[in-house]
Design brief:
Elements (H helix, E strand, L loop, with lengths): L1 E6 L6 E6 L2 H31 L4 H27 L1
Antiparallel strand pairs: 1-2
Length: 84
């Protein structure tokens, strides 16, 4: 695992990224699987409250944040599973 600078085409700039070996990526994906299940349970609970029309602003904010986190983690796990 190390930080790398990846050039952004035609801009003269670079973007800092974290590079993982396939083994490191698989290990991290494995550790994130239970976290993803837990986030989905929380999301489903908030989704039920939201659909009932009784969600507070705070609950709606949390619902959106969970939706984004779930998408990111799910995408990471799928990328690792698909690639390796």
């Amino acid at each position: 695992m190390k930080w790398i600078n990846e050039p952004i085409k035609d801009t003269g700039y670079s973007e800092t990224m974290l590079a993982l070996t396939p083994e490191e990526a698989r290990d991290i994906a494995g550790e994130l699987a239970p976290v993803l299940r837990s986030l989905r349970k929380k999301y489903d609970r908030l989704e039920d409250i939201r659909q009932s029309g009784e969600a507070t602003e705070k609950q709606l904010d949390k619902w959106v944040i969970l939706q984004e986190r779930i998408g990111t983690i799910d995408s990471f796990i799928k990328q690792i599973t698909y690639k390796f």
